[in-house]
């Protein structure tokens, strides 16, 4: 048994499907089947049972898959610490980021970092901000970029603030928004709460939502196509011409700000490449 065998068991247990597991592992289905048989022979047990819906793990197989996850995590930790002892600045950082940050900010940040540290690689997970804190807690990622502070992390740092704003291709009066077509999109819970609260403070009529999309970037494209207005963070439209933008203000006249945080657990700075990255991010000119 080597590390690849444990990886096969972990991926196969996650996918519950030979074809999908082979695709994830970048090997052929016949090669995966042969290797699985060899693992079964090694332990002298049946690991999976095949059926019309795919495969199901036996009791022994489930135990081995669970052990595989633990062994892979332990192996990664050992490798991480060995690299940390080395004088070379190299290794892999596991990052998590909100969709907004990944789409509009992260590429430029990582590009500039790689110029300085070409031997540091990245594994990037994109998910909702509220899910990032759980990934940090379970040590699935080293560092996260989120839109709101949902709590649970020891270390958090505000990278930048931007207003939430109403954006349209057409000139508009604020009081006419309830009668204008709006493009809605899936977003983090707290962003939605901020937008809904602002709307409730200014209008007694529900918005006229004529289109719902699953991503902020899609909403921006629909706004550019003059299919309606949207309420979005300013950075998503700051470089787009011919748009009319109105920053949201609460009932006291304060601008409603959308913050982006850097989050991590305090112990992650003991990993040298993580500390280098954190210091770089804190001084980056966002």
Low-confidence stretches: none
What gap, in angstroms, lies between the N and C termini? 47 Å
Number of helices: 10
Overall average pLDDT: 90
The secondary-structure class comes to alpha/beta
Largest sheet: 7 strands, mixed
Structural features:
286 residues, alpha/beta, Arc Repressor Mutant, subunit A, D-Maltodextrin-Binding Protein, domain 2, 3 domains, seven-stranded mixed sheet, two-stranded antiparallel sheet, 11 strands, 23% strand
Written description of the protein model:
With 286 residues, the protein is an alpha/beta fold. The protein has 3 domains: 3-85, Arc Repressor Mutant, subunit A (Orthogonal Bundle), CATH 1.10.10.10; 91-160 and 259-282, 3-Layer(aba) Sandwich (D-Maltodextrin-Binding Protein, domain 2); 161-258, D-Maltodextrin-Binding Protein, domain 2 (3-Layer(aba) Sandwich), CATH 3.40.190. The protein has 10 helices and 11 strands. It has helices at residues 3-15, 18-25, 29-43, 59-85, 99-104, 106-116, 129-137, 189-202, 216-224, 272-282, and strands spanning 48-51, 54-57, 91-97, 120-126, 143-146, 155-168, 181-185, 208-213, 230-233, 244-247, 257-264. The strands form 3 sheets. Strands 3, 4, 5, 6, 9, 10 and 11 form a 7-stranded mixed beta sheet that branches. β1 (48-51) and β2 form a beta hairpin. The longest helix is centred in the N-terminal third of the chain and has 27 residues, at 59-85. The two termini are 47 Å apart.
């Amino acid at each position: 048994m080597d590390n690849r065998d444990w990886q096969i068991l972990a991926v196969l247990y996650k996918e519950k499907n030979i074809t999908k597991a082979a695709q994830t592992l970048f090997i052929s289905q016949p090669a995966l089947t042969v290797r699985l048989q060899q693992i079964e022979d090694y332990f002298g047990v049946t690991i999976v049972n095949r059926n019309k819906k795919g495969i199901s793990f036996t009791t022994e197989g489930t135990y081995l898959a669970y052990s595989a996850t633990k062994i892979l995590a332990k192996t990664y930790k050992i490798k991480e610490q060995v690299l940390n002892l080395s004088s070379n600045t190299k290794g892999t950082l596991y990052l998590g980021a909100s969709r907004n940050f990944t789409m509009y900010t992260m590429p430029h940040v990582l590009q500039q970092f790689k110029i300085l540290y070409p031997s540091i690689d990245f594994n990037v997970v994109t998910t909702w901000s509220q899910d990032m804190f759980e990934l940090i807690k379970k040590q699935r990622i080293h560092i996260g970029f989120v839109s709101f502070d949902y709590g649970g992390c020891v270390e958090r740092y505000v990278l930048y603030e931007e207003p939430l704003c109403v954006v349209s291709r057409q000139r508009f009066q604020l009081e006419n928004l309830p009668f204008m077509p709006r493009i809605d999109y899936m977003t983090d819970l707290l962003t939605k709460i901020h937008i809904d609260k602002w709307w409730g403070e200014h209008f007694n009529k529900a918005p006229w939502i004529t289109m719902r999309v699953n991503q902020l970037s899609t909403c921006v494209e629909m706004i550019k196509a003059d299919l309606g207005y949207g309420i979005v963070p300013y950075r998503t439209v700051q470089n787009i011409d011919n748009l009319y933008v109105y920053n949201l203000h609460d009932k006291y006249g304060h601008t409603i700000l959308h913050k982006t945080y850097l989050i991590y657990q305090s112990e992650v700075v003991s990993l040298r490449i993580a500390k280098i990255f954190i210091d770089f991010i804190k001084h980056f000119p966002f």
